[in-house]
Structures are given as structure tokens and as C-alpha cells.
Design brief:
Structural class: alpha+beta
Number of domains: 4
Strand content: 15-25%
CATH topology of the largest domain: Nucleotidyltransferase, domain 5
Shape: globular
Bound molecules: zinc ion
Radius of gyration: 25 Å
CATH architecture of the largest domain: 2-Layer Sandwich
Length: 368
């Protein structure tokens, strides 16, 4: 094998592996970049490799195949969601009509006289990447430690990442509508600046001070059972109306509210008949967490900000999307595989198509 040194490790989680996929070999003072699917032993038969080299090559190829090639489980997954109505016209007058080339169940709708499959009307209708790759993306999104690195490394092409995020946001839209906090409930507001590009300036060109229109107000609620919610209330300071919209439907009547001196909270206290425990957060500054009565909500605000900070410069129109992702991360189930399964299931049960063209506003070709 001469002096070529392999600078890669294979016994790592797929997420880590992916970031190392751009393996380089060093030899003759040159750095050579390999194609994603290649190994440094391209021309050599597997039988001539050392056992360790063969192990690395085989693992690398199997992971590459897993990420990029058709996956036989696709059809089983889609067929697991039998349809009882047409996703286009809503007609229940439908009949099964065999299978497509990949083994996915086909249906025919007598309502609109069109065929469809369980994929129709879901984010998977226009498939740019195989299902396992999207699943792998979800696993990365929901494993807490990897966000920051994930946001920094543009590991997939620049156009793919925002598109996949947009798909995820559309699947998660409304996921916090059913959340209900109960028992002892902590609430607070936290603020996050809009990106410099989107900031509104005063006539003299300077940024307004304080809790201006350039601050996104986020309502955060936590309860004693480890549930928490994250709702974009709008821009600038909170108000009674904003507090009602954020928390009104998401706290059980008669719960016990633990909060700071924010007067806007009075709205939900009276609406929902809450018992209340108020604290002056200024007097609690510097108090250790185990003595600070507002610690549960402070902690989630801190973690949320760390999360938002790892995705710098996002468009303000996407804030609720990021909050929904954080909601999934912060709430049960705890394991990222269970979270990914929950989101895949939601994608099939709450169909929302997001086509590549619509996302990028590309004019369709006139052919067809
Ligand atoms: Zn139809």
C-alpha cells in the first residue's frame, strides 16, 4: 500500500461519519479529495486488502449505500399508511389499483378520476432524496449535541438544507396546539433579535433601543411533569392579548402559575382561574438554581437561546419552525429515534406537500 495514510475512522455514529466522509489521503505531499462513495483502495480487489482495510471499506460502502440508494423499506413504510380518501378531492370513492414500480400501493379516485399513492399530498410526494436520508437528517436534528455542528457544517448542498428544514417546519406546524401544561406551571417571556438584515431602523439609521420591534417575543411555559412549550408571541414586549394567544389554550384550568411580575400574565390568571405564586426576578438574580423558584423556566429559556444561537441569521418568518423543532427536542419521548419516528408518522398523517419549485419560487417548465 505504500505510504498512503487513511485519515478516517468508521466505528462512529452515522452522523459523525457523514462529516468525515470527505476523506483525504496524504501522499507525496499532495492532498487528494475522494468521491463520497470511494475508498482509498479503489483499484484493489477486496480479497487483497488487509483485514482492517477490508472492514473499513465495507463499512464505508454500506453506510454510503444506506444514505444514497433506494431503500427496500420505503414501500413498506408508505403502504403502512392506507388511505381512505383521495388526497386531491377528498372523495371516499376510491379503489386499490395494483402497485407502482417500487411496490407502493396505487389507488384510483372516482371523484377526480386520478390515481394516487399514500405518498401523494405528503412532503414525500416530490422525492429529492431517499427516505433513509431524511430519517438520518431527523436523527441529527433531534440529537441535542449535534445542532451546533450541524448548523455550522454545510454538509449537504446549500440548497438542500433550507429545503429540508422547510419540509420539517411544515410537518411540525401546529404540533404545539395540543400541548397542555398542568399542575405547577412556570411561564416567562424570552426575547431573540431578528437578523441584522431584517432589522427595522429609525429614520436616522440607528436601531431602536430596548424591547423594540426587532426583538421576537417568545412565550415559554414549563410544568412539573417535564412538558414545555415555545410560542412566538410577536415582536417587542408581550401584552395581555399576546399572553392569551400563547398560553390561553395550553394551560389546564385551575393550575398553579409560578411567574415573575409581568402584568400581562394577569390575563391568563383570571381567564383560567389559576392560583398564582409571583416572584420579583430582579431579587432572584445570582441565586443558585436549587433555591431559585423560577429555575425551571429559566433553564429552558437558556437552552432555547443556545439552540437559536446555533442557527444564526435565520429568517424571522421561520422562528415558529425553529421553536417547534425545539419543542420536539425538549419534550418526551426522550430518545432521538422515538422523536424521528414521531415526526415521520406525523408527516404521513398530516399531509402537507412542499414542492421544491414552490419553495424556491422557480417557474415550472412549460413542457407537459
Ligand atoms: Zn380525487
Amino acid at each position: 500500500m505504500g505510504g498512503g495514510v487513511l485519515v478516517d475512522v468508521v466505528v462512529l455514529a452515522p452522523a459523525v461519519l457523514a462529516s468525515r466522509r470527505e476523506t483525504t489521503t496524504m501522499g507525496k505531499n499532495e492532498r487528494r479529495r475522494l468521491a463520497a462513495s470511494a475508498t482509498p483502495w479503489g483499484g484493489i480487489g477486496d480479497d487483497k486488502l488487509e483485514p482492517a482495510q477490508r472492514m473499513v471499506a465495507e463499512s464505508h460502502r454500506s453506510i454510503y449505500a444506506f444514505r444514497h440508494e433506494k431503500f427496500e423499506g420505503d414501500a413498506d413504510f408508505f403502504n403502512g399508511y392506507a388511505r381512505d380518501a383521495c388526497p386531491r378531492c377528498g372523495s371516499q370513492d376510491i379503489a386499490k389499483r395494483g402497485f407502482d414500480s417500487r411496490g407502493v400501493q396505487r389507488y384510483f379516485s372516482s371523484g377526480c378520476r386520478h390515481g394516487f399513492t399514500p405518498q401523494t399530498g405528503t412532503i414525500f410526494e416530490d422525492r429529492k432524496l431517499p427516505l433513509p436520508a431524511w430519517t438520518d437528517y431527523l436523527l441529527q436534528v433531534f440529537s441535542y449535541d449535534s445542532f451546533a455542528s450541524m448548523a455550522r457544517e454545510a454538509r449537504r448542498s446549500d440548497t438542500t438544507r433550507p429545503y429540508w428544514n422547510a419540509k420539517l417546519f411544515s410537518v411540525l406546524e401546529g404540533i404545539q396546539d395540543d400541548a397542555v401544561l398542568s399542575g405547577r406551571v412556570w411561564v416567562d417571556e424570552t426575547y431573540w433579535p431578528v437578523s441584522a438584515k431584517e432589522a427595522v431602523r429609525r429614520p436616522d439609521g440607528k436601531l431602536p433601543r430596548g424591547l423594540s420591534v426587532n426583538q421576537m417575543c417568545i412565550g415559554v411555559g414549563v410544568d412539573g411533569d417535564g412538558r414545555s412549550i415555545y410560542i412566538h408571541e410577536g415582536f417587542g414586549k408581550t401584552s395581555k392579548a399576546k399572553t392569551r394567544l400563547a398560553f390561553g389554550g395550553r394551560i389546564e384550568r385551575g393550575s398553579e402559575l409560578v411567574h415573575d411580575m409581568e402584568g400581562a400574565h394577569d390575563a391568563i390568571v383570571s381567564d383560567l382561574g389559576l392560583k398564582r405564586e409571583r416572584h420579583n426576578s430582579k431579587l432572584l438574580k445570582g441565586m443558585p438554581d436549587d433555591q431559585n423558584p423560577l429555575a425551571p423556566v429559566n433553564r429552558m429559556c437558556f437552552l432555547l437561546k443556545r439552540f437559536l444561537g446555533s442557527h444564526s441569521g435565520f429568517k424571522r418568518s421561520n422562528i415558529q419552525g425553529y421553536l417547534d423543532v425545539f419543542y420536539v427536542i425538549a419534550n418526551p419521548p426522550g430518545n432521538e429515534m422515538e422523536k424521528a419516528a414521531l415526526v415521520l408518522d406525523r408527516a404521513m398523517r398530516c399531509p402537507k406537500t412542499l414542492r421544491f419549485r414552490e419553495f424556491y419560487n422557480v417557474k415550472p417548465h412549460v413542457s407537459r
